[in-house]
Amino acid sequence: MKSSSYMIPALVGIILQYLTTLFTALAIVREREQGTIEQLIVTPIKSYELVLGKVVPYVVIAFFDLGEVLMVGVFWFGVPIRGSIWLLLALAFLFLFTSLGLGLLISSAAKTQQEAMFLSFFYPFAEHISVGLFLPAGSDASRVTDNQLCYSATLLPDHCAQYCAQRGRIEHVDE
User: Fold this and answer.
1) Dist CA 73 CA 141 (whole Å)
2) Checking CA distances to 173, which of 11, 32, 65, 81 falls within 20 to 30 Å?
């Protein structure tokens, strides 16, 4: 098996999760540190509009990065996507909800930007080891395979892709 066959799908999940988690956590904590969150709270906008205004730009950035990683994976490394790109985008959109939720959770726990950055980098570290970046997810060499279903970044590149491969939409290529 070529290493790019399991590294590129793992990079999709990792990049999406790191970007959205880190940026969301830092945006909210920065507002709290500077004292401008109180000014935003007293404005006539609703709280969900405030949160949407903070996270939507990072969703757009994450989808741009998703496109970049997929294009580099397909054209440079030769990792094929055989099936519906729309299904992959829909799954990535659902996956972003977990990352955004993790970023909001970190922002509510962290008091400083430094804490938020530390938590957003080191909390999902075990998750990123098990998603297939270093070893193929589900291989016997990966000792954390029993815990993979607990991690959100495992579900996008590995389990969703394998599920879709059984349906003939997206296929992992083992070489």
Assistant:
1) 24
2) 65
